């Protein structure tokens, strides 16, 4: 198996909705396993996501879960997910979807270093950075 590094996001009960949203944004194959499907006891948390994984046609892997009861959840406090490359059309498409319903901290526009760059937080509280390398804007 190839070694890979990918983000693993924690949610407070809305991991299914967030991962389905990311599947709409990026496409790919989404696998969701609930606490019940892993042998957890029935109860209010049985349908929460114990482990979710999205593998996209572009080679991205995004994993997520709902935190078990009793664990504190602090979204977006110590990370950002960065998308970068030179496919301006595809990156702008993702930016449009990710920023819809969220907040834009830095508009997607030409920056002093020459790239088109933007920062947003999606509607689930996840911060994103998008960088389109060497584009004319």
Q: List SSEs in N-to-C order.
A: EHEEEEHEEE
Mind telling me the CATH superfamily name of the largest domain? 2,3-Dihydroxybiphenyl 1,2-Dioxygenase, domain 1
Number of domains: 2
State the helical fraction. 10-25%
Shape: elongated
Number of strands: 8
The main sheet comes to: 4 strands, mixed
- Largest sheet, spatial ordering of strands: 1-4-3-2
Helix/strand-derived class?
alpha/beta
Poorly predicted residue ranges: none
Gap from first CA to last CA: 40 Å
Name of the CATH architecture of the largest domain? Roll
Protein name: PhnB protein
InterPro entries: Glyas_Bleomycin-R_OHBP_Dase, Glyas_Fos-R_dOase_dom, PhnB-like
Domain Glyoxalase/fosfomycin resistance/dioxygenase: 4-130
Pfam families: Glyoxalase (PF00903)
Provide a short characterization of the protein structure:
Helices cover 18% and strands 35% of the residues.
Tags for this model:
137 residues; 2,3-Dihydroxybiphenyl 1,2-Dioxygenase, domain 1; 4-stranded mixed β-sheet; 8 strands; 35% strand; elongated; PhnB-like; Glyas_Bleomycin-R_OHBP_Dase
Give a verbal description of the structure.
- This is PhnB protein.
- Pfam families: Glyoxalase (PF00903).
- Residues 4-130 form the Glyoxalase/fosfomycin resistance/dioxygenase domain.
- The protein starts with 7 loop residues before the first strand and ends in a 5-residue tail after the last strand.
- Strand 6 (103-110) and strand 7 form a beta hairpin.
- With 137 residues, it is of the alpha/beta class.
- The protein has helices spanning 15-26, 88-99, and strands spanning 8-11, 29-34, 49-55, 61-66, 81-85, 103-110, 116-121, 127-132.
- The protein has two domains: 8-66, Roll (2,3-Dihydroxybiphenyl 1,2-Dioxygenase, domain 1); 81-132, Signal recognition particle alu RNA binding heterodimer, srp9/1 (2-Layer Sandwich), CATH 3.30.720.
- The model has no long low-confidence stretch (mean pLDDT 88).
